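The material for today's practical consists of a large collection of protein records. An example says more than a description, so a record of this kind follows:
***
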Amino acid sequence: MSQHDGRPAGSKRRVSKKGPTKGSGGKNRRALAGKGPTPKAENRPYHAAYKRKQYREVREKAAQAQAAAKARKAVIKVSEGHELVIGRNSVAEAVAAGIKITRMFIAGGAAKDDRMGQAFRVATAAGAPILQVDREDLDYATDGAVHQGVAIEVPEYEYFTLSDLFAKAADSDKPGLIVALDHVTDPHNLGAVLRSGGAFGASGVLIPTRNSASVNATVWKVSAGALGRIPVAREANLVHALKECKKHGYFIVGLDAGGSETTRNLTVADEPIVLVTGAEGSGLSRLVRETCDVIASIPIHAAVESLNAAVATGIAIYDIAQARSQAK
């Protein structure tokens, strides 16, 4: 006999586990909630517009940094026809050499340095303003060079002539020793050569007008003030200048690794000499080399292929000075 719901006798009623067939009863309310408006393309990390926005922001920050740097540079704006001499030793030597001071800049505790006393007195006597500035201002004005919190603005370096170098050598009790630089373009090398020349009795330094480092704040700094004592002459044509030196009794000694003599045993050490140094790597130019009377080398260890131009020049000047002192 069948049950009243139409199922066979003895069968069990199936109970659905799916729950209500209509509506969720609130169970999926969160799933149906809205997620808000879609973010802009430039705010979605996976979108190309986002990368373009980041790149644009980086450029804007760089532009702002450059603008700030220019604003700081404007605090110490060097007048046309002038340059900065930086560092305590360089400033002291420049003042001692009688260089005219236009302005003096002091940062931090530099004013307490005893070496600056004379510089203050000279600047004050000349009516030059002494300005207190931030170290950051000097950093920007000197392109990050080591300024030790002091700088003076002076007229651009007034180069000497070759005749001036001859005259200075004639006033000495030693044979003239002029250092000529052939295509040495790094101001650090020029400054270092001046420092060595000042230490070992060079009469002066000769540089060409073109393709050569010129006197600037870096040269003043690296020379440790020797620029105030060693004259720098600049001539348009180095080969012509060397030939003029020959006419005045100078022997032209080129410094090169393939020399027939060494700087320690230079046969013309007691004679007036023009010591010519070429650029590191390329060495002496062809015409300059052909103008030389002697090519000399520095004995070095086989493991070292070459020396820095300034280092080699310093060694050669020392060797010549030693040979001259031993000959007495």
